[in-house]
Design a protein that fits this description.
190 residues; mainly alpha; two-stranded antiparallel sheet; 4 strands
Length: 190
C-alpha cells in the first residue's frame, strides 16, 4: 500500500529576500553562452594522407596477411590531400561513423551521460564565483572540456588491422593526439 503526503512550504524574507535576489540578478546580468567542442580554427596539419596510407600498407604486408591468402593493397596513387582538415569534421565522422568506419559516439555519449549534472554544477559554480557570469561560464567550459577529453582518451582499442598498421598502435579516436588536444571552450557575451 502506497501513501503520499504533501507538505506546504513557505518562503519568508520579504524585503531582504527581494533585495538578495535583485543583487544576484544584477550580478548575473543578461547572461552569456559557453561553447565547448572543436571550435573554428582547430585543424589537422596539411599532410600527404596517401603517403601515410602507403606506409601503413607496407607495414601490414611486411607482417603478413590479415587473413590467409590475402594481402593489403592500395591501388594507383590518387592526388594527395594537403589542405588542412577541420578537427570538427573528423570528430563528426568519428562520432556518427562513415561508410568505411563505425560510429564511435564519444561526444553524443558525453552529452547524454554528463549533461544531467550540468544544471546543479552551474548553480554551485555561480554561487562559488559570487555570480560572476563570465567566470562561471569559463569554469563550466573547463569542466565540460575535461569531460569531452576524458571520453576521447578512454575510448577503447577498436581499430581495423589496416588502421593499426598505419598508426602503429590500436587506440580508437587517438592517432597523433590532435583531436583530444583541440577540444576547447569559448565564453561568448557578458
Amino acid at each position: 500500500m502506497a501513501t503520499t503526503s504533501f507538505s506546504r512550504s513557505e518562503v519568508k524574507g520579504g524585503a531582504k529576500l527581494q533585495k538578495y535576489l535583485f543583487n544576484v540578478a544584477q550580478k548575473l546580468g543578461t547572461g552569456g553562452t559557453v561553447r565547448v567542442g572543436f571550435l573554428e580554427g582547430a585543424t589537422y596539419p596539411a599532410q600527404d594522407r596517401t603517403a601515410r596510407l602507403r606506409a601503413g600498407v607496407a607495414r601490414l604486408n611486411a607482417v603478413g596477411p590479415v587473413k590467409p591468402g590475402t594481402r593489403a593493397f592500395v591501388g594507383p596513387p590518387k592526388p594527395s590531400t594537403k589542405a588542412p582538415l577541420p578537427v570538427a569534421t573528423v570528430a563528426f565522422w568519428n562520432n556518427f561513423g562513415t561508410k568505411t568506419a563505425p560510429a564511435r559516439p564519444f561526444f553524443s555519449n558525453m552529452i547524454a551521460e554528463d549533461s544531467p549534472t550540468w544544471g546543479r554544477r552551474l548553480a554551485s559554480v555561480a554561487k562559488a564565483t559570487n555570480y560572476d557570469t563570465k567566470l562561471t561560464l569559463a569554469r563550466m567550459g573547463e569542466g565540460i572540456q575535461g569531460q569531452l577529453v576524458r571520453r576521447i582518451v578512454e575510448w577503447p582499442a577498436d581499430n581495423a588491422p589496416l588502421t593499426i598498421a598505419i598508426k602503429g598502435f590500436n587506440k580508437g579516436l587517438i592517432d597523433q593526439g590532435i583531436m583530444q588536444h583541440s577540444v576547447g571552450y569559448q565564453v561568448v557575451g557578458k
